[in-house]
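Recall that a protein's primary structure is simply its ordered list of amino acids. Everything else, from secondary elements to tertiary packing, is in principle encoded there. The following example makes that idea concrete.
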Amino acid sequence: MKKKSINPTLVKHIPQRTCVACGEVRPQRELVRLVRVSGDGVEVDPVGKKAGRGAYLCPVPDCWQAGLKKGRLEYVLRTTITEDNRQQLIKYGQELG
């Protein structure tokens, strides 16, 4: 009969997410979550706990511009982003850099 070790080494699971702009897979905490809200809007979810369909972007201005200009964010969130909302998100992305 084999003895089990008393202190097995536990490896903590780190959730992985994909940036919708560049496609890079990174730990969830390194990415910024955007969530679809009612009324055709998208908000930044800094805590990552808001209810709703979410998407992730790298905290790099280039990824924010690519995600918003190519329409990838709208496709992933299954919504349309108003021009006013788009400008708010672009401004937030520029402040990250």
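The longest helix spans residues 83-96. The two ends are 58 Å apart (CA to CA).
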